[in-house]
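Colleagues,

For the teaching module next term, I've prepared a clean inverse folding example: a structure given as tokens, and then the sequence designed for it. I'd like students to try predicting residues themselves before seeing the answer, so please don't circulate the second half yet.
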């Protein structure tokens, strides 16, 4: 083979080899380009940072610890302390968080009953609420009693006295918003100390 043909053949083989290597490298870089393309829908949707991370985790079937099992709760505003009574509003539910009591006002069996001849819970004066199985004997001073009302406020009372019986001898200053809760065996006196607004 003449020397010139041999040189041309060698250069052709080298050029073809270089082309193959370049093509292989270009194909190997394809995943990086697709990663950039994958981010484009998130940007188009306006998802950035935290929201994009959550979306990617959901698509991969993963979630952050506690996120999937966290129960949804009804939104309630922060507790606001108050020095005076609220406007009168009819009570809807009686809650005692420390004993897990949560009953509607209805006057039957274990439900609570409000003496509507007197002040409404949260208004000026002493509101009287009765019921059965309210577990008042388990209450101590400093615990709270909550009354959900029709004005979308929850009046929060702090217990100041727990006594057996009806304790009708308690002195109750006029003008102050107080609550007397009686379950037949125990009487509780509580003073209005705050309220929450429901959304």
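(Answer key — instructors only)
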């Amino acid at each position: 083979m003449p020397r010139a043909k041999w040189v041309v053949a060698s250069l052709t083989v080298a050029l073809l080899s270089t082309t193959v290597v370049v093509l292989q490298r270009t194909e190997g870089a394809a995943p990086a380009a697709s990663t950039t393309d994958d981010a484009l829908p998130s940007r188009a949707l306006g998802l950035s940072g935290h929201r994009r991370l959550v979306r990617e985790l959901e698509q991969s079937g993963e979630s952050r610890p506690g996120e999937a099992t966290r129960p949804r709760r009804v939104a309630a505003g922060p507790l606001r302390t108050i020095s005076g009574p609220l406007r009168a509003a009819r009570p809807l539910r009686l809650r005692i968080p420390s004993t897990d009591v949560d009953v509607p006002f209805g006057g039957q069996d274990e439900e609570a009953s409000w003496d509507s001849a007197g002040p409404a819970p949260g208004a000026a004066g002493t509101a009287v609420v009765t019921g059965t199985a309210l577990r008042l004997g388990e209450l101590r001073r400093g615990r709270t009693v909550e009354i959900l009302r029709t004005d979308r406020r929850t009046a929060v009372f702090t217990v100041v006295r727990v006594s057996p019986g009806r304790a009708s001898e308690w002195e109750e200053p006029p003008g102050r918003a107080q609550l007397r809760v009686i379950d037949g065996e125990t009487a509780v006196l509580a003073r209005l100390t705050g309220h929450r607004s429901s959304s």
